[in-house]
Specification:
33% helix; six-stranded antiparallel beta sheet; BPL_LPL_catalytic; three-stranded mixed beta sheet; alpha+beta; ligase activity; Biotin/lipoate A/B protein ligase family protein
């Protein structure tokens, strides 16, 4: 019997974090972005969640990212994205919250073009929501809502985070293309089973929102929107 050799290619979630770290290792000279598709699951913790590393168990790899926010479960059900901007770029100079707006609206546009009724969450709309809706599961990225993240049918479909350094700004996000197996995330981190049920009720994958959703076409649309937005002539003065 022939035993297959292990792949020498790092998992996509590892490549993603390495790319992100490299962008801010030196001054960002010009805008760049990458989209990420994941063949296998991985858990990516926010930079303030080191304590969860000690209680992680099971076969799913656990990584720590530079940006804040809660735990993310990547896998075939998610499309990831990373955007690196020079520190003096117009889209980076807008401030911590406002710099999310263009990216949240770009994600919502790409989803709407695919038939999903998606909207970026304006700060005033978020403030009007009950506190328990704004933070349903405090340790998971998709368990809370922040300005300009994306909702579909009132449920979270895309989350955002960022890192701001002297060398530049890194914006990252994740779009749920299909339902996420939240129970896998909770079991791997030793969290309450009820949290997985809450996450399932308050999030939605694009494939749930519309039948026969084309994830590949969505990624192409998002790539086009990002490229057009980050072109120098497209940036506001």
């Amino acid at each position: 019997m022939t035993v297959p050799l292990p792949s020498l290619t790092p998992p996509e979630a590892v490549r993603e974090q390495l790319w992100n770290e490299q962008q801010l290792a030196q001054p960002v000279a010009m805008p760049s972005f990458r989209l990420w598709r994941y063949r296998e699951p991985a858990i990516v913790l926010g930079c303030s969640q080191r304590r969860l590393l000690a209680q992680a168990a099971g076969p799913v790899p656990v990584l720590l990212r530079q940006s804040g926010g809660g735990a993310v479960l990547t896998g075939p059900w998610m499309l990831g994205l990373s955007v690196a901007l020079p520190a003096d770029h117009p889209l980076a100079r807008q401030g911590l919250v406002a710099s999310y707006r263009w990216l949240g609206e770009a994600l919502a546009q790409a989803l709407r073009q695919g038939g999903v009724d998606a909207q970026a969450l304006a700060p005033e709309v978020l403030r009007a929501m009950p506190a328990e809706r704004r933070t349903a599961v405090d340790w998971a990225c998709f368990g809370g809502l922040s300005p300009w993240e994306v909702l579909a049918g009132g449920r979270k479909i895309a989350g955002l985070a960022q890192v701001r350094r002297a060398h530049g700004v890194l914006l990252v996000g994740g779009v749920l293309l299909q339902p996420s197996p939240w129970r896998l995330l909770g079991e791997a981190l030793g969290c309450a089973a009820a949290d997985a049920q809450v996450l399932a009720a308050t999030t939605i994958g694009a494939g749930e929102a519309i039948a026969h959703f084309d994830a590949h076409a969505c990624a192409l649309r998002l790539e086009q929107v990002l490229a057009a937005t980050l072109e120098p002539q497209a940036c506001p003065p």
